[in-house]
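Researcher: I'm comparing several assemblies side by side, and this is the next one on my list. It has 870 residues spread over two chains. Same procedure as the others: predict the full complex and return the structure.
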Amino acid sequence: MDDLRRVGETTLIATVHDAASTAADQRIAALSATGLRKAYGATVALAQADITLNAGTVHALLGENGAGKSTLVRILTGAAVPDAGEIVLHGQRYAPRNLIQARAQGVATAFQELSLVPNLSVAQNLLLPTLPRGPIGLVSSRRAREAGAAILARHGMERIDPTAEVGLLPLAERQRIEIVRAIENAGRVLILDEPTASLAETEWLFERIRMVTAKGVAVLYISHRLAEVREICGEATVLRNGNSIASVSLEEATDEDIFEMMVGRRLDRTSRHRTSLAQTAGPTRLSVKGLGGHGLSDISFDLRPGEVLGLAALEGQGQRALFRMLAGIEKAERGETAIDGMAANLSSPRRALRIGSGVAYLPEERKTEGVLAGLSAATNVVLPIMSAAAFAAVITPQAELSAARPASGKVEMNARYLSFAIGDLSGGNQQKALVARTLATAAKTLLLHDPTRGVDVGTKQSIYAAIRSFAAEGGAVLFYSSELAEIVQLADRCLVLYGGRISQTFEGEAIAEQALVAAILGHAPSARARA
Amino acid sequence: MTNDLRQADTRFAQAGDTRTSAKVSRETISAATVAVLCVLLLVGARFVSPALGSWSQVETVLILGFFLVVLSFGQGLVILSGGLDLSLPGTITLGGILATGWVGTSDPAAWYLLPVVLAACGVVGLISALGIIWLRVPPFIMTMAMSIIVASALLGYTNGSPRGAAPYVAVALMKGHVLGMPVPVVVLICFVVLGWLFQSRSVFGRYVYAVGTNVEAARIAGVPVTFSRILPYVVSAMCAGFVGIALVGYSSGATLRMGDDYLLPSIAAVVIGGSSILGGRGTYLGSVGGAILLTTLGTIISALGFEFGLRTIIEGSIVLVALLLLREELFKKLWSIRR
C-alpha cells in the first residue's frame, strides 16, 4: 500500500518534471511578437519591439522607466491595440481587443496598479466575470464563496476569508489575490507586472511561478529588482526607448552588461557648466531636515541659490509625496523645512508661494493637476499672480496676455498660443505653459516633478534651457525625472531616493547614467565605488 | 480635427502656423443663439396675437424677467464653481418675509434694515457653503436641507400667515419710473453690467472658473480655493434675498411659498445660457439671455391662455433640449463640417 502510493507519487513527479523539461528543451514558442509599434499622438511609446516567450519558462522584461514596458504589457493583454506588428500565440494569430478576449485565449495579467474591484468580496473578485449561479439562475453567493475558498486553498492562502471585502485587505494580500486571479486564468501566458512591489518576500510567489511553468505556461516577469529577476528568470528582453535591444540568457549576462543595455551607449556628454560647490556655498534657499511621513523617512538636504538638484528614483519611491509636502499640498508628519533660513509652515501651495522668496511647484500629472482646460493659456500662466496682474481687482484678457508674455518667452512658447484655450494646445505647449507659470510666480525655488513628461524633443530642449537660465540667475531647482539621461544632463547634484529614503548622493562628474541605474535599483555600495 | 491640429502643432511649431484663436467661443455662440431666439419669439408672437410683441410687451418681459436675471447670477456663479444652489426658495422667502416683517413701511428703518436682511440671507449661503466644503455634504443635499430648514423656521416665525406690508423702497424699486424708464429696467441693466464685470473681468471671477474646472489643479496653481468656493453660495443667497425684497415690492406682500416657482427656472436659465452644469464653463450674459428667453416664453404662454402646467412642461423640455444641444461633441461636429 505504502509502496504503491510512493510509486504513484514518483511517477507523478516524474511526469510533471518531464513535461517541464521537454517544454524547456524543445523551446516551444508560446507567444511570439514581432515588430510591435504603438504611438500615442506624437509620443512613440513603443517603436520596434520583438519578444518571444517559451512555454514553461520565465522571461524577464527589463528597461528604464518609460522604455515601453507598460505599453508592451498593455498590448499583450489587449488593453491597447498596436499600430503595427503581429503576435502569434501557440501558432495562431493573436490580436485581442480587450482584457476579456486576451483571457479567453489564456493570457492573463497581474497588474502593478491592481485591477481588483475594492467593494466586492475576495471570492467575487477571483471569479469575475462569471459568477456561479444558483438553482433559479441568480448569482449564488454560497457557491461563489465555496469556489473562492477552493482557489485560495490551492494557492496556500486559506488564511484569507473569501467573503472579505477586498478594499479592506492590506496591500500585500490584495497583490497576492491579483496574482492568484491571473494564475487561475493564465492557460498559456502569465504576465506579472512588478509582482513584488508590495510583497515583503518572494518565496510564495516563486513557488506559484514554478507551479504554473510546470504546466507549460510561459511567464513574462517585469521587475526592477535585478537580484529577484536572476533568481527566477532564465532569459531577459531589454527595452530601451521603445525598442527591444536584445534578448539574453541571464546566466551569461553580467549586471554591467544589463545596465549597459538598459541605458545604451554613453551619450556624448555635451560640455556644460556644472555649478561648482564654491559658487553655491552660502545661504540656502530650501533646507529640509528629517522630513518624514507618507512613506518617506528622514529626508534631509539643502538647496542653494544657482543649484539644480536632481532626484533619481524608480516609480513609487516617495518622490511624489516629497514634492507634495514641499509644495504645501500634503502635511509632513515629521521634520522641518526652512526657506531662506526661516522655518516654513507649508500649509498650502498659495502659502508656499509667499514664504520667503517663494516655492513654486510643477505637478506630476499635467492633465489632472496642472492645466485648467477651459481657460486660456494666459490665464493658466498668470493664475498664481492674478491679483498683481489686475488693476483694482479688474482683469482683462489683454492684461493677462501682457503679464504672461515674459514667462512664456522664457520657455520659448509662441506668444500667439497664449490666447488659446489651453485644452486645445498640444501636450508640449501645455507643459511649456505650466513651466512658464512657475517662472511667472517669481519664486526663487522651483519644484519640478518630471518637467518633460510626455513632450517631444524640441519642447524638452526649451524646458532644459529655461531651467538652466533660471538657475544661472540665482534660482534654485529641485527636479525629479523619470529619464536618467535628463538628470545627467541637467543636475549639479543628484539625490537617489529608494524605499522612501535618500540612499545615495552624487555630485558633479559622478552623475553618470550607469551609476544612477545601479543606484535606483538599490545596488548601493559597489555602484558608488564605480562612479 | 483636434488631433490634426496637435500634429500640425509639433510639425510647424515656429514656421508656417497661422492659426489664431479668433474662432468664436462656444459660450458666445450659445449666448447669441439665445438672444436671437428671444427676438424671434417676441416678433413671432405678433402673428399669434397682435397685442404681443409691442414695446410695452418688451417692458413687461424685462420687469418680470428681473427676478430671474438676478437669481441666475447667483445660481450661475454657484454652478460655475462646481456646485448647485437649491436653497433659493427658502432664501427668497426669507428676504421677503424679513422685508415685510422687520422693515415694513417705516421708511428710515429701510436704509439700515434692508442691508441687514441681505446679510441674513448671506449667512444662510455661508452655512450651506461651510457644510459643503468642511462636512463634504453634496451641494444639492446641503442647499436643499437649508431651504427646508429656513422655510420651516419662517413658518414658525410667522405662525403661518406673514404680516406687514412692503417697504416703500421695494415698491419704488419695482414700480417707479426714472427718466421715462421703469426703475426695474434701469436697475436690471446696471445689475447685468456689474454681474458681467464680476464674473468675467474680476480676479475673483477667474478663481471661480478655476475651482469649477478642477479644484486640485486650482489649489496647486495657488488659487485660494476655500474662499473661492464659499463666496458663490453667499452671493447666490444674497441675490435670492434681493429678489425676495423685490418680489414683495412687486406684489405688495410676502407669502410663505413666494420662492418656490423660481428654483428650476434659475437653473434652466443658466443651462440654456450655455453654462456647463458640471462647472467651469459659462458666461453671465448667456444666463441673462436664458432668463429673458424663459420669461418671454412664460408671458406668451400665459397670454395665449395655456395653463400653468403646460408652461412648466415646456420649460422642462427646453432645458432638456438645451442640454442635448450644448454637448461638446455636437459643437465639434459642427466645426468639422464647416471646414
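Model: For your comparison table: The radius of gyration of chain B is 21 Å.
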